[in-house]
Specification:
- The chain is of the alpha/beta class.
- The chain is built from 14 helices and 11 strands.
- The chain has helices at 42-55, 83-91, 100-113, 132-135, 152-166, 217-226, 229-238, 241-245, 253-258, 262-286, 296-301, 303-310, 322-327, 347-360, and strands at residues 8-13, 18-23, 29-34, 63-68, 78-80, 118-122, 174-179, 183-189, 192-196, 291-295, 340-342.
- α1 (42-55) packs parallel to α3, α5 packs across α14 (347-360) and α10 (262-286) crosses α12.
- The mean pLDDT is 92.
Length: 361
């Protein structure tokens, strides 16, 4: 199939939004975005996908690429979804229960609407370059549980565009902070993942909108004494993170920043402190870093959060230009300091790139 004349629909189902882009064979791109979706609200999600299919109008794809948050233990960056692959993806839903059901639902609806190939593109695949010291967890190897890492489609996109922004520095030690409703950080060297904060599932790492991030295993044992498994799953994915830290005020960073409450301020400060800690941890593992990248909804749009995160990082050579930070320029570091870069998340572009590679292959 000729990549130059391929119409691609890229669908990115997140935990709180659906984004999609139609890349036409004439080089044009049309974007669609549907926000404020609850990840476990299947009926709402189905309405959104059907609305997308209506909004496409006369734009008919030759192939549809889907973001799949978890690919399991396979090494492929993408797979054509046939009956066997659909069955495999269904079998790993427990690894990402907030995302995979809706990823599959979008695929099934599109399969019904468009009789064209449906290709699953995996967030986990970018992190397969991590060394054993990053992948291995301190538990018996016989359990076959490892660190996977997530947000890989956006990290892969950043690896594609970063050299055009900061040149050869991009191949050095880079920390990328993907900060959105779901949030993680990735340490890159030679534009490849060498470590990341998320682990076996998208619930680990730093705090997120409604996910706690890493917790003492004893807490999970205590919860297991108090609640059935399904209730624990609901707690972990829907009732923790910023929502819990703000005493139920909001899981949305925009609302917390607009609030005057002490609970909101505490949640913001806690989040920024944890992100700083993750940057410091990755820097110590690498022996220092050469640039810092902010991406995703909070990372791209919140000057307040970026300033709070960077304020104590002078010792790493990470110093903001406050005016540039407020203006949301691409480069926001103080002159002469290490690059601090804002790159909007664009999983859709990376999905389209991967899908075209699969079709050409």
């Amino acid at each position: 199939m000729d990549m130059a004349v391929l119409n691609v629909l890229a669908i990115n189902c997140g935990s709180s939004s659906v984004k999609a882009s139609f890349f036409s064979d004439d080089g044009n791109r049309v974007d669609f975005c549907y926000s404020d979706i609850q990840g476990d609200d299947t009926s709402s999600f189905e309405r959104v996908i059907k609305q997308l299919l209506t909004d496409l109008g006369s734009n008919v794809p030759d192939v549809v690429g889907h973001r799949f948050v978890h690919g399991g233990s396979i090494l492929d960056s993408a797979r054509l979804v046939d009956h066997v692959e659909h069955k495999r993806l269904t079998s790993i839903i427990s690894l990402a229960p907030l995302h995979l059901p809706n990823n599959l639902l979008a695929l099934e609806l599109c399969s019904t609407y468009f009789k064209v190939p449906q290709i699953a593109c995996f967030d986990t695949s970018f992190h397969y370059t991590m060394p054993a010291l990053s992948k291995r967890l301190p538990i018996p190897e016989s359990l076959s549980i490892q660190r996977f890492g997530f947000h890989g489609l956006n990290y892969a996109h950043i690896a594609q565009v970063l050299p055009s922004i900061i040149g050869e520095i991009a191949t050095k030690k880079i920390v990328v902070a993907h900060l959105g409703s779901g949030a993680s950080l990735c340490l890159m060297e030679n534009l490849q993942s060498v470590d990341t904060t998320m682990g076996y599932t998208p619930a680990g790492g730093i705090p997120m909108g409604t996910r706690s991030g890493d917790l003492d295993p004893g807490i999970m044992m205590e919860l297991a004494e108090r609640y059935p498994l399904q209730q624990i799953r609901d707690l972990v994915f829907h009732q923790m993170g910023l929502l819990a830290l703000s005493n139920g005020e909001s899981a949305d960073m925009r609302s917390l920043i607009a609030s005057n409450s002490n609970h909101a301020k505490f949640a913001i400060d806690y989040f920024c402190r944890q992100v700083r800690g993750a940057i410091g941890a990755l820097a110590s593992k690498a022996g220092g870093i050469d640039a810092l990248v902010f991406s995703a909804g909070i990372g791209q749009h919140s000057a307040v959060v970026r300033e709070k995160i960077c304020a104590p990082l002078d010792f790493l050579g990470i110093t903001l230009d406050l005016a540039a930070n407020q203006s949301t320029a691409t480069r926001i570091e103080r002159q002469g300091e290490k690059p601090i870069v804002i790159i909007p998340a664009d999983e859709e572009m990376e999905i389209a790139r991967i899908v075209k590679q699969v079709c050409l292959g």
